[in-house]
DNA sequence: CTGAAAGCGCTTACAG
DNA sequence: CTGAAAGCGCTTACAG
């Protein structure tokens, strides 16, 4: 080791102890705010610590205490919107606890997932937050088998899980959005769903159906489109809906990304929102308020969900038990400018 | 410790060694693929490792080798677009190296930054990627003082730094965008800049000026707006430009978020893009291709920048030296559907 | 109130 | 080719 490197090396507890003329044990007690140190000694050591700007070595602490101070967040892909909303809340919670957040995107690639899982298993995480609608290699189970705490955010494909999950009242969101459109006078309401094998998709759809049925409006299968939750799906399905013999007067998109796709199609076809077509989204991600025109959508409390999930995980890590394995925060309708009563007369195909 | 916990505990190298009837040293050599182990012994130990799905303890390794396997990425806020583009590239590079990515958003809060810095100083990071246009508390310097490798991404406010930075040819982007609009016949081109104290803003502006001057078009200060790089700034400045006595026929936005704001204003005022107004953005973030109409913009190779920054950092961590302290990747014009020749006759104020 | 000592699970000279 | 031993920098019973 060269001299230069030696000089730049951070101090150890032993060095602090030596300088203060006390034992390492005593320094450790001061650092960890443990009792059993005289007031004067404590003050002297404290001063020394501050003077040198000493920080405990993380690795040694980790090795002894078995805590890495790290939380892993697993997401499908870095795409903004929904995931970022959740991350905001997670970050906020971790800021208080002092944990750092490791972010990992699976890109739905099994090999990548397995490699990450291996890297995680060396006890270098305190807990994992799963932000995946579904998984193929059973990440949650593998993690639990290793006694690594897990909390899943958003709806998962399994109706019940033996690990905690936090979601929102999706069904109610689907119901509320549809009911709102009905209240404006709409009778033909198109819905763009996600993949039907996801429970979260089915919940939206069930809410939609319930609202129609309560209003005595027959459900027209032609108005129900299956897609994925991407913008491109909104484009594709909006086109399909508009090309119908008897097109809808309102479109309820499965999420805000789809709604953005719907906007694009309406723009291209020169169909005015909301005069000629009403649109409702789902999620209420950051940009919805700024879409032209501002999108009426179902608000999911993303930040709160993230925060609560992180706090649940933290409690699990602390060895506490959770009151409930499943928490649902409430969705709500945010009325902005994308909906209006249907215009009289059929919409012309353009 | 209860029996249950005992059972779930992960194996140690010592246990593997005992089972295999060899020393810990030998197991370690096999695990780290070091020479000095007989082929048979190696095979036997290898089998044992696989059988037990043994993974080295991260904390112990970290303590001995002084490597955490962690890279920290510091960003201002989680907002998507630009930052996510960079993150994609970073993740890709780290996937190969095996490092995990810690993400931290400063929210431009000094207290938060200082707390993070402290947490970082305990040797629990291998290196830091800075994705901040500027910083108030001198993060880069503090990190360097602690011998923690740093690489900054995107342009920084300092013209020169004593740590590596990676950016793109912003000036050229400003020039190219303006030149393109001129080539379409535009003479009055509005530009929405970012904060003028940022070098990155001034580079765009200098490119804009250069293109105008080369074309013999006088620079009209009224057409130059200062804003911030958010969507709201695009809205505000687009309104200002449209309210001018002699409004521009094209608007060059400082980034794509601003361009989205411009779109919104044009939509509200029922000014058609590109027939009545041309718009150019900057960055080429994920959603630009999907804006209605698809936005013509200056492409920054965000993923490549992130990847290269990560690789530079990795090299620094490995003790290698870098060829250059400053790398600039090239920007390019991506022509989509938001520009057209100016319509004849003045644009009516609406 | 204070401190000597064991030990967390590895890696790495070094000796055989 | 193989292994005993020191040590990375802490925390934590335990003894004084």
What gap, in angstroms, lies between the N and C termini of chain A? Answer: 76 Å
CATH architecture annotation name of the largest domain in chain A: 3-Layer(aba) Sandwich
Top-tier CATH class of the largest domain in chain A: Alpha Beta
**Which regions of chain A have little confidence, pLDDT < 50, spanning 5+ residues?**
1-8
> What is the number of helices of chain A?
13
Mean pLDDT of chain A: 90
Domains counted in the coordinates of chain A: how many? 3
Profile the largest sheet of chain A: 6 strands, parallel
The percentage helix of chain A is 40-55%
CATH superfamily of the largest domain in chain A: Response regulator
Query: SS-based structural class of chain A?
Result: alpha/beta
Give structural notes.
2 copies of one chain form a homodimer. In chain A, α2 packs across α3 (24-31), α2 packs across α4 and α9 (170-183) runs parallel beside α10 (199-214). In chain A, the strands form 2 sheets. A 6-stranded parallel sheet of chain A has the order 2-1-3-4-5-11, with helices on both faces. Chain A has a 6-stranded mixed sheet with strand order 7-6-8-9-10-12, with helices on both faces. Helix content of chain A is 43%, strand content 15%. Chain A is of the alpha/beta class and 350 residues long. Chain A folds into 3 domains: 11-38, no CATH class; 65-168 and 302-330, Rossmann fold, CATH 3.40.50.2300; 170-300, Response regulator (Rossmann fold). Residues 1-8 of chain A have low confidence and may be disordered. Chain A has helices at 3-8, 13-20, 24-31, 39-52, 58-65, 82-97, 110-120, 139-145, 170-183, 199-214, 231-242, 256-268, 302-317; strands at residues 70-75, 100-105, 127-131, 150-153, 165-168, 189-193, 224-226, 250-253, 278-283, 296-299, 326-329, 332-334. The longest helix of chain A has 16 residues, at 82-97. Chain A is elongated, with a radius of gyration of 27 Å. Chain A contains 13 helices and 12 strands. Chains A and B meet through α5, α6, β2, α7 and α12 of A and α5, α6, β2, α7 and α12 of B. Chains A, B: Residues 11-65 form the HTH lacI-type domain. Chains A, B: GO terms for molecular function: DNA-binding transcription factor activity; transcription cis-regulatory region binding. Chains A, B: This is Transcriptional regulator. Chains A, B: It holds the Pfam family Peripla_BP_3.
């Amino acid at each position: 080791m060269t001299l230069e490197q030696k000089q730049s090396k951070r101090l150890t507890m032993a060095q602090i102890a030596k300088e203060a003329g006390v034992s390492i044990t005593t320094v450790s007690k001061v650092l960890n705010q443990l009792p059993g140190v005289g007031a004067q000694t404590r003050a002297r050591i404290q001063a020394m610590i501050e003077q040198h700007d000493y920080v405990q070595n993380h690795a040694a602490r980790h090795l002894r205490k078995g805590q890495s101070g790290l939380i892993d967040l697993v997401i499908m892909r870095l795409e903004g919107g929904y995931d970022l909303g959740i991350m905001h809340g997670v970050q906020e919670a971790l800021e208080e606890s002092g944990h750092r957040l490791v972010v990992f995107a699976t890109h739905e690639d099994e090999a990548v997932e397995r490699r990450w899982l291996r890297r995680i298993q060396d006890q270098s995480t305190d807990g994992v937050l799963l932000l995946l609608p579904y998984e193929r290699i059973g990440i949650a189970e593998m993690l639990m088998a290793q006694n690594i705490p897990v909390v899943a955010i958003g709806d998962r494909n399994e109706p019940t899980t033996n690990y905690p999950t936090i979601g929102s009242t999706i069904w109610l969101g689907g119901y509320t959005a549809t009911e709102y459109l009905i209240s404006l006078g709409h009778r033909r309401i198109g819905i763009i769903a996600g993949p039907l094998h996801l429970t979260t998709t089915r919940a939206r759809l069930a809410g939609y159906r319930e609202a129609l049925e309560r209003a005595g409006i027959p459900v027209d299968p032609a108005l129900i489109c299956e897609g994925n939750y991407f913008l491109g799906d909104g484009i594709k399905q909006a086109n399909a809906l508009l090309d119908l013999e008897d097109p809808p007067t309102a479109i309820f998109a499965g999420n805000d990304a789809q709604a953005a796709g719907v906007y694009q199609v309406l723009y291209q076809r020169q169909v005015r929102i909301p005069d000629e077509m009403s649109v409702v989204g789902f999620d209420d991600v950051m940009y919805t308020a700024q879409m032209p025109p501002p999108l009426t959508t179902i608000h999911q409390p993303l930040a709160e969900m993230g925060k609560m999930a992180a706090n649940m995980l933290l409690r699990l890590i602390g060895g506490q038990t959770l009151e409930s394995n499943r928490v649902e925060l409430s969705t709500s309708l945010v009325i902005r400018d994308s909906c209006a009563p249907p215009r009289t007369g059929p919409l012309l195909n353009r």
